[in-house]
């Protein structure tokens, strides 16, 4: 307030100085040089700017002046300005250019301070209104963002459940296609759950409406009984409301933190699920490999038993051969020579008999040919004899 009064006093003093300098310059305008005229024009422009700002502020003030103002400050200020206007007269002086200049009406420092104070209060009220409106809009946007986050989370959850239960869990092993009955059942369950949620919200809404009617009736009864809330009660309610808003803000922060934790947990869960899927596939491959290795091991065991049997037989045969070798005695050299001589004689006899057999076979073949010729000759002779008998009989 003190700073505002000082500024207004300075502005009023500057206005008085400018007006006095203008009066003095009008008396000796013809004696001024170009530089002095330039300075005079600059001072006049500055004074005009100051008066223009004051006029704009005063016009805004007059537009907002309420005729029902309890203090009557605005009405008194307007009356003072009107009296000042009627009491002053416009002086005209002849200049070199032949134009007339009107005297400007000035406000006192107290009036300027009052106007500035009222403008400041109005600006503060407008700022508070804009702040409240901005907070309300910001709260609406926050609520919309939270609702969007909840919808996104629900959509992701529904998509994950659909992929888990339908896309991956409802595939026919034979045709590798999704079973339609499970898809229809899944959507029917979802629609049924949504209908249940809608019914719950409808009941909750009706309950809130009943509570609202009860509160309105209680408020109406209090107004009829004269139990009107005073400013202290409103202040207490504002304090409680502020406390509740702080609690709600804390709960929202906790909820946001829990949502972030839930998102992180879901990411970790998806990572572990991917690892589990990979390990499951690897486990299936290992089981298949173990079964194949087990079959191979069983075949190897069977072959091992067969080889063991053959090895046992071979060992027995080897033992017999070793026994025979151990029992074998080398004959004398003379006996060996005799045996070789007898073998030579036997081979010679065999070759001789083979030669005799060949000669006998050759003789047999000759006899067979002769026999065939005799049979052929006899058959021809019998045929000719038969041919001769037939004409004689005829």
Automatic annotation (TrEMBL):
Keyword Coiled coil among UniProt keywords: yes
Keywords: Cell projection, Cilium biogenesis/degradation, Coiled coil
Region span, Disordered: 1-24
Coarse class of the protein's main subcellular location: other
Residues in coiled coil: 106-158
Pfam families: CCDC113_CCDC96_CC
Record's keyword annotation contains Coiled coil: yes
Source taxon at top rank: Eukaryota
Protein localization: Cell projection, Cilium
Basic and acidic residues bias: start-end ranges: 1-10
A single cellular component GO annotation: ciliary basal body
Protein name, as recorded: Cilia- and flagella-associated protein 263
Family to which the UniProt record says this protein belongs: Belongs to the CFAP263 family.
Low complexity biased stretches: 12-21
GO biological process, one term: cilium assembly
Residue ranges constituting the CCDC113/CCDC96 coiled-coil domain according to the UniProt record: 192-365
């Amino acid at each position: 307030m003190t700073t505002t009064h000082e500024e207004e006093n300075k502005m009023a003093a500057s206005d008085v100085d400018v007006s006095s300098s203008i009066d003095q310059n009008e008396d000796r305008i013809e004696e001024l040089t170009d530089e002095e005229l330039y300075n005079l024009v600059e001072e006049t422009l500055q004074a005009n700017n100051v008066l223009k700002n004051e006029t704009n502020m005063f016009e805004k003030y007059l537009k907002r002046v309420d005729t029902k103002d309890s203090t009557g400050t605005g009405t008194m200020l307007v009356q003072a300005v009107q009296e000042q206007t009627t009491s002053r007269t416009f002086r005209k002086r002849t200049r070199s250019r032949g134009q007339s200049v009107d005297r400007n009406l000035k406000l006192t420092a107290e009036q300027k301070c009052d106007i500035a104070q009222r403008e400041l209060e109005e600006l503060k009220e407008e700022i508070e209104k804009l702040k409240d409106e901005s907070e309300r809009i910001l709260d609406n946007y926050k609520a919309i963002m939270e609702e969007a986050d909840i919808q996104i989370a629900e959509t992701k959850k529904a998509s994950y459940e659909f992929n888990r239960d339908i896309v991956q869990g409802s595939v026919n092993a034979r045709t590798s296609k999704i079973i339609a009955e499970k898809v229809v059942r899944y959507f029917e369950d979802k629609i049924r759950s949504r209908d249940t949620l809608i019914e719950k919200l409808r009941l909750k809404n009706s309950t809130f409406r009943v509570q609202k009617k009860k509160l309105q009736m209680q408020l109406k009864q209090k107004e009829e009984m004269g139990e009107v809330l005073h400013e202290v009660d409103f202040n207490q309610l504002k304090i409680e409301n502020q406390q509740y808003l702080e609690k709600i803000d804390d709960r929202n922060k906790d909820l946001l933190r829990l949502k972030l934790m839930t998102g992180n947990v879901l990411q970790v869960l998806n990572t572990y699920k991917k690892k589990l899927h990979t390990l499951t596939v690897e486990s299936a491959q290992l089981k298949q490999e173990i079964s194949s290795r087990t079959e191979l091991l069983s075949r190897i065991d069977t072959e091992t038993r067969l080889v063991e049997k053959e090895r046992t037989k071979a060992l027995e045969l080897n033992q017999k051969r070793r026994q025979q070798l151990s029992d074998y005695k080398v004959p004398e050299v003379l006996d060996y020579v005799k045996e070789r001589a007898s073998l030579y004689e036997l081979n010679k006899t065999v070759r001789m008999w083979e030669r005799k057999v060949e000669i006998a076979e050759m003789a047999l073949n000759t006899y067979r040919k002769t026999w065939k010729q005799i049979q052929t000759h006899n058959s021809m002779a019998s045929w000719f004899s038969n041919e001769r008998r037939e004409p004689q009989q005829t």
